């Protein structure tokens, strides 16, 4: 006789079972701390393409870095507008976003600088700015196109550790025919973003490699919740005649009962039969899911609200984690994106047939200022204005500033602005948020 548990296994047909969990195919059971996992390009593509959460982790910081773009400050305002117009024509904003996405996704992001020069040249030649005619296009690409990285390994060279040449795959496809060519390209003809590279390695590392174990745990939690929801409620049918049924009869009866009583249908049973509904306990599951979310957010260095797709650039009171996140984005703009933008703008200034002729960048006073990344919601903005007004009143009563100085500082020549212009470092933001939070607590008793 087959045991009841064996019958249950035989009849079980779970649409979410797949390869199963906690068996020889489950990678989670074979995790060993400290054993790194090198992901292939195909594995990275599958991870990225299969999960919107992974896409958010990769895409959102790159989008935030470029979303509000920048303002070019220089004495010649018309020249500044011409430069910004040329960058718009080159679709520089889109190219920079894609470069930083590729950097996070595959370890290296590039932008090819398509130029016209006064003389014939090879891509392996260094780009001479004094012979530059025009900047024609910007194309973002990843390390998938790169066959070899040539790094300066001379520890006594000023350019030690820097990329000097690339061997790039320039394959082109025409229907079913593919023509493969390879070119050596000098680094001056590229913009290159590489955030994570281990010493002794040439290629950068994908952000998904250190996140792989955590993403596995996250996938397991989603799978487990799906299992719980799938079996959240089930019905139990009791009858003294069950023992007399064959395995085939039980299988057919189970199918019929499952079909008839899947919803809140009317059950017609005899006096000695019983039909009850059982529920799955979910006690403690919120704490477990919160742990997984906190682990993922900490590893990605992104607040949970940002990973989940909160409205970009909007902050409510006391959201310290979101403020810290935007502070890191500002640092990335200054440290990672600004040097690339400065190089591109210098190329436009030096190009003979751009902007009305060649202009020496060193002869101008110019600066890149990134536009603010975030603003507070209306309620928090009103509370901040109230705190600032009370502070100004104290300054005025103690003769620290005059009324005219205060009017000029707060309203300027254009009157009261729609949004409060507040600038400060992380400590200033935290102190301001604390004040708003305490004010809310006081207002609510």
What separation lies between the terminal Cα atoms?
A: 70 Å
Order of helix and strand elements from N to C terminus: HHHEHHEEEEEEEEHEHEHHEHEEHHH
Shape: extended
Total helical elements = 13
Percentage beta strand: 15-25%
What characterizes the major β-sheet? Answer: 3 strands, antiparallel
- By secondary-structure content and strand pairing, the structural class works out as alpha+beta
Approximate helicity band: 40-55%
Q: What is the residue-mean pLDDT, rounded to a whole number?
A: 81
Radius of gyration: 31 Å
Enumerate the spans where pLDDT stays under 50 for 5 or more consecutive residues: 413-426
Tell me how many strands there are: 14
Question: In words, what does this structure look like?
Answer:
A hairpin with a 2-residue loop joins β6 and β7 (177-179). It contains 13 helices and 14 strands. The protein has a 3-stranded antiparallel sheet with strand order 3-2-9. It has a 3-stranded antiparallel sheet with strand order 4-5-8, with no helix packed on it. The protein has a domain at 377-445. It has helices at residues 4-11, 41-50, 52-67, 77-89, 92-106, 208-230, 247-260, 285-300, 304-307, 320-350, 378-397, 403-410, 426-443; strands at residues 70-74, 109-117, 132-142, 146-151, 163-169, 172-174, 177-179, 182-186, 190-193, 233-238, 274-279, 314-315, 366-370, 375-376. The model is unreliable at 413-426 (pLDDT under 50). By secondary structure, the chain is an alpha+beta fold. This is DUF1073 domain-containing protein. Residues 43-393 form the Anti-CBASS protein Acb1-like N-terminal domain. Pfam families: Phage_portal_3.
